[in-house]
Amino acid sequence: MTTKKYRAAVIGTGRIGMLLESDPKRIKPATHFGLWSSHPRTELVAVCDNDQKKFKIAKTMKLDVQTYTDPEELLKEIKPDIVSISTWKDTHYQMMKLALRHKVPAIVLEKPIAEKLEHAREIVEEAKRNGTHLFINHRRRFDPLVYEMVDEINKGIIGEILQASIFYVFGLITTGTHLIDVLRLFLGEIKWVAAFPNIKEHFAPTDDPCVDAFIGFESGIKASFQSLDMKDYDIFQIDFYGRKGKISFKNIGRDFEIIRPKISPEHTGFIELNDDEIECRGGAPRNQFMFLGDNVIDCLEGRATSLSTGEDSLRALEILLAMQKSVELGNKVVFV
After folding, report:
1. Is 63 exposed, middle or buried (0-12, 13-18, 19+ CB in 10 A)?
2. Radius of gyration of the chain (CA)
3. Which residue, of 70, 102, 136, is where some domain finishes?
């Protein structure tokens, strides 16, 4: 059995790149830095950031890590097997092009894949030509419980799915990309969207306000897609309504709750959802970063393919940009 250790580097040492590793409440590893420095099959060799103050933090976490302010210099000198790109979304295209030019075998990219569709398509096509293993960090793709529940729903645990409702915060592209990706995983391909601006005061990136929408799937299922204010509370929740009950994917993705029907105690001949007996799955955070790391190693060694592909992220971006277009067109239906 091989014991090779793969050399890894992180470009971008902000929150998800490195800083959240110090959050005492988060399961570890909580960042790309934490993942590659703790995974038994990888060695974190170098980090890159344009803010040299972060290098002091990096050195306290891993004394021998090499530091760079120029990503091209890092790629030339280190020649990593794996690189995580955890920079701001407006640099994703540039950083991906750089990593692809240097033929990095495995690239883990924070979402979204790019800001423009043409850039996203170019990245996907070039990665495919290079034979590069590309992983977009849509984190629910790296949660084994999600796959268990997808299988349960497909087997009919709550019967035929009729409708879904979604709530999110903090930006259509920023957070919506996670939701669209996981919706496709559960419910299949999306056919059309009709979107509306959230005119209520809400906290979001200045270039990425929240949008509300209706989403139509090829199966005929429809979903409402609604935004709230992160300054009030955080929420990432999907409710699936089937003929035999309801499943809530809630608590920022930690928990699944299954609610089945019961005979109404109040109205003869009626059936209600039984909130008194809720079956819970999950209940605690799962080690999604380590699951991602395992997938990367399995791909490098020919045992697997990416669980969160560039094609998946490209499709999510197409759908989100269609929502923005629908808003611009006065809330008209846009087919995707």
Report:
1. exposed
2. 21
3. 136
State pLDDT tens for residues 126-136: 999 999 999 99
CB burial class (10 A; 0-12, 13-18, 19+) of residue 195? buried
- Report the alpha-carbon distance of residue 197 to residue 149 in Å, rounded: 32
How far is residue 103 CA from its own chain's centroid?
A: 24
124 Rama class: left (phi>0) / alpha (psi -120 to 50) / beta? alpha
236-267 exposure pattern, b = at least 16 Cβ within 10 A, e = fewer? bbbbbbbeebbbbbbbebbbbbbbbbeeeeee
Is the pTM for the entire model greater than 0.90? yes
Assess whether 178 and 325 both reside in one domain. yes
Which stretches of the chain score pLDDT less than 50?
Answer: none
Q: Which residues contact 249 (CB under 8 A, 6 or more apart)?
A: 149, 182, 237, 238, 239, 240, 255, 256
Task: Mark whether 81 and 213 lie in a shared domain.
Answer: no
Q: Give pLDDT tens digits for 162-218.
A: 999 999 999 999 999 999 999 999 999 999 999 999 999 999 999 999 999 999 999
CATH number of the domain where residue 188 is located: 3.30.360.10
Cis ω for the linkage preceding 205 (within 30 of 0):
no
The Cα-based distances of 15 to 231, 234, 285 in angstroms read: 18, 17, 18
Determine how β-strand 190-197 pairs with β-strand 211-217.
Answer: antiparallel
DSSP code string of 223-252: EEEEE--TTT----EEEEEETTEEEEEEGG
The kind and range of the H/E element at 315 are helix 310-328
Range of the domain at 120: 6-136
The reply to whether 194 and 75 lie within a common domain is: no
Same domain as 164, residue 115: no
Residue at which a domain ends, from 136, 170, 193: 136
How far is it, in rounded angstroms, from Cα 11 to Cα 48? 5
